[in-house]
Amino acid sequence: MNTDFDLVLAGGGLANGLIALRLAQTRPDVRVAIVEAGPRVGGDHTWSSFGLDINAEQRRWTQPLFAHRWDCYSVRFPRHARTLNVGYGSSNSDKLAEEIAKALPPERVITGVPVVAISPTSVTLADQRVLTCSGVIDGRGQSKTSNLDLRWQKFLGQEVELAEPHGLAGPIIMDATVPQADGYRFVYTLPFGPRHVLIEDTYFSDGRDLSPDLLRRHIADYAVAQGWQITKVTREEAGILPLAIGGNIRAFLDEGTPGVARVGLAAGLFHPVTGYSFPDAVRMADMVASLPSFDAATIHRACRDHAERVWNSRGMYRILNRMLFLAAHDEERRTILERFYEHPDDLVGRLYAADNRWTDWPQVFSGRPPIPPLRALGTLVKYGLGMK
Fold it and tell me: Please, what are the domains in the chain?
């Protein structure tokens, strides 16, 4: 049967964008199309990752996507601050859109048209076009679900120009010296130039509600506290990212269209504790590009198996989140993160990369307990028994 394409990627976000790029690099014979409801592929986002999150080959092929890289990053807490000599990098939607435009012919990048229906071998668009193919991958993001137990990292960030240089040598990924509210609050700062900086007011919270005007005031107050004078706001971004404390991954994946592969947040592929999605999207792109064929059944099985395997390997991270969101009270959430950053650089790096060893976990839970042990144990037992 003749088809329009070998593979259609429904949704032009990070996960599908990376799949399109990797296939263009390694399998240029595969006819790939990407469909995005918005005006351009990639949306308007910043995606960051730590130096240990991806391997050397993955750093090589994703290098054009990185707008900024740093050799170290810092954290600040009430009782201590430190700089970790671990690399950190940030990509953005502009870079992703530019690279996809280079990799795919313009007729294979369809934007501004929503997907209204999908099957394992077709995608129907709002303008009534039907794209036929050997296989479909759904990367349109995560919809509401009852099969994952989630909490949220929510933020509002502003890229600003300053009157004078900020003096930062690298990112401050957590400044938790700020007043605590709505769970665990911190400010995240990326220095993009001597006077150009991204400032995000960020929360690990039980709820999804976001008050943009309040967070803008917090950003202005934080700049004043750092001795910075903002002369111009050049860009603003807000987001609400999932953090996982439990769930049934098989039931979650069953929510999709039968036989259609899911990737990205639609497949539960994000770091349970940080919400970062870039490393998982890179690994998924490599996996898809390595497939022997691109028929619907092969793609669906491979993507589903990959998502289940990743989820099942991260149970300890979800236990950490239960401690953070269910057992901790008030400012104890900040104390848990503060204690975590007392560990060596390599241990912190492995946990952020979700590349932990079983020998790491005794170290994570060693030392002074940030919350009463009996309360923590009781919380975990109750959750295991379904008593939330």
Answer: 5-67+90-146+248-312 (3.50.50.60), 148-244 (3.30.70.1990), 315-384 (no CATH)
